[in-house]
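[job 0412] stage=complex_fold ligand=pyridoxal-5'-phosphate status=START
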Amino acid sequence: MRPVEPFKIKMVEPIRLIARDEREREVREAGYNLFQIPATSVYIDLLTDSGTGSMSDSQWASIMRGDESYAGARSFFRLKDAVRSIFGYEHFIPAHQGRAAEHILFSVMVKPGQIVPSNIHFDTTRAHVENRQAEARDLAIDAAYDTALELPFKGDIDCRALEQLIDHSRAQIPLVMMTVTNNSAGGQPVSMKNVREAAAICRDRRVPMFFDAARYAENCYFIKTREAGYKDHSVLEIARELFSYGDGATMSAKKDGLVNMGGFVTLRDGNVAEKIRQQLILYEGFPTYGGMSGRDMEALATGIGEALDEDYLAFRTEQVKLLCDDLHEAGVPVIRPAGGHAVYIDATRFLPDIPASQFPGQAIVCALYLEAGIRSVEVGSLMFGKQNESPRLELVRLAIPRRVYTNDHILYVADAIKELYRKRKQIKGMRIVSQSAVLRHFTARLEPIS
Ligand SMILES: Cc1ncc(COP(=O)(O)O)c(C=O)c1O
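[job 0412] stage=complex_fold status=DONE, emitting structure tokens
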């Protein structure tokens, strides 16, 4: 049976599919870069699931209760209690979003020349590690790079590689970062078994283990539904067990916090927390608001609980699976199995005749916008490529915002991609016309190769 939305709609925002010739003009003027297209010219926006979700009526009600006191706001204590009841760590430090949390944590813990291992670093954690003149080392299991392989936990870290790295370079490793779910590996979950094993390796060698917890609720739901021994546990119980193995976490609350802006660091170590608070005051704000307003903290305190609701999580993961399975059954190459927040098209298999140097992912992104007004994002050579070096995967990510689109929207997306797949021989490769030195994918201008 198709998943049914566990909510009804109280407020609507109109969207419109602009005409094909207008879409052609938009994409040309944007230099074939959809980051440069106004959102009003997009029909279905799958650019990201970050900060793009809908808040519930309870969250909007919470906003009215926001305490905007500079110091000691009631909303801070409510949020701190809500976070501690899930994560279980003593210290709570609010920040305006995930990368701000990474910045203040790494400023204190990471020194030049060090190595921070992870299953796979998300691009902002990688950038912040590198900003400290340290190395961000990905240690995903090999299966993470095989898009067709159907395994339940392709987000896992390679524990043998982790063990070897720490044994070889213990003095250089300030912490290990576990990303749950593993965004850059297709939103694939990490198993509790893997977390337990990685934590034991870290504990034995006295290396702190932190979570990048942006999508921890989706990860815990996959543990409940895919890992032996967890089906009768609540997702909250699973989350508490998961975090009990670590020493702290950073969180972009724009995902499983169900808010449009917000984040935090939470951890056990009081000395480190004190140093982070000094960074917080410098870069974010006073320790009882960090980078957030009182009303934002209230909305998050409510949202973080709603994200653990199992009816919501069942619908959320089933909706992603609906799109993934529908495309897979039609022969469209997508990362299997479905992950938690997005469907990823394997651009190398979609357009086998277009080499990585001609950005097959970006070619699909532009063609899909022209076909149906759908905005997706390339995660491949344009985003991660360096001179004469391509990343291991060429992907197009279709990230599904939380509680925003109905299944009819999702099926419209599926139909458009299937149609595009039938016409794939007409898609041309692309070349870069101009680009910036850092994070080029946001602003680069491209053109099709005729
Ligand atoms: C796994 C992961 N970590 C960290 C971040 C950074 O969070 P933010 O965008 O709130 O700075 C993201 C954002 O997409 C993410 O997916």
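Residues 310-329 form the longest helix (20 residues).
[job 0412] exit 0
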